Amino acid sequence: MNNNHTIEECYSFLACPYRFPQEKQIHNTVKDSWQQALQNSINDIIETFYRITYEERTSLRLFALLSQNWENFDRSLFLSQQHFILVCATVTDHLLKLLTTVKEKKNPFLNLSEPTFEKGEVVIEKVLVDVDEELFSAYCQTAMTYSYNAYKCIPKRIEVFDILNAKRYVHYPGL
């Protein structure tokens, strides 16, 4: 994504960057399809979790949401049944740890219609399936473009949580 893209294109990329194949992944449609489906599912799970009342946001409730999601997931998108089980177990473990430690009353993760502000500055946080440096760089560039066009400022911080690898990537555009 570059500065010539529309706000809608930027928003679409920020919501699910796996819809936009990177140069080195163009021929790997199996990888792209399971990552895209999983990202959309994670987005839905997080949104649903933050729609329930603050008091009801427990590990057990989140586990129930995740279990229900895995029951309905298209397993044919994965390389094998073992791959599906490994990914589900890893995502479940990492999402449980992440979401039950974040004690925000509203969804802090990429709700671009209601961005998170810290001391009056935009902060963009997002949970992504699998992140490498190339994807993180593209994500930051797109987030800065989107933020500038939508809010007339660049974000104070861009934070991406790689849910498969339990890694946190942070970029401070102003530094």
Folded structure, characterized:
By secondary structure, this protein is an alpha+beta fold. It has one domain. Helices cover 49% and strands 13% of the residues. The chain contains 5 helices and 4 strands. It has a 4-stranded mixed β-sheet with strand order 1-2-3-4. Helix 3 packs antiparallel against helix 4. About 5% of the residues have low confidence.
Report a brief summary of the structure.
49% of the residues lie in helices and 13% in strands. The chain is an alpha+beta fold and 175 residues long.
What class do helices, strands and sheet pairing give? alpha+beta
Mind describing the biggest β-sheet?
A: 4 strands, mixed
Shape: globular
**Order of strands across the widest beta sheet?**
1-2-3-4
Tell me roughly what share of residues is in helical segments: 40-55%
Distance between the termini: 22 Å
Task: Using brief descriptors, characterize the structure shown.
alpha+beta; 4 strands; 175 residues
Set down the secondary structure blueprint.
Layout: H1 7-15, H2 29-51, H3 59-71, H4 81-101, E1 116-118, E2 121-128, H5 133-151, E3 157-162, E4 167-171
Helix pairs in contact: 1-5, 2-3, 3-4
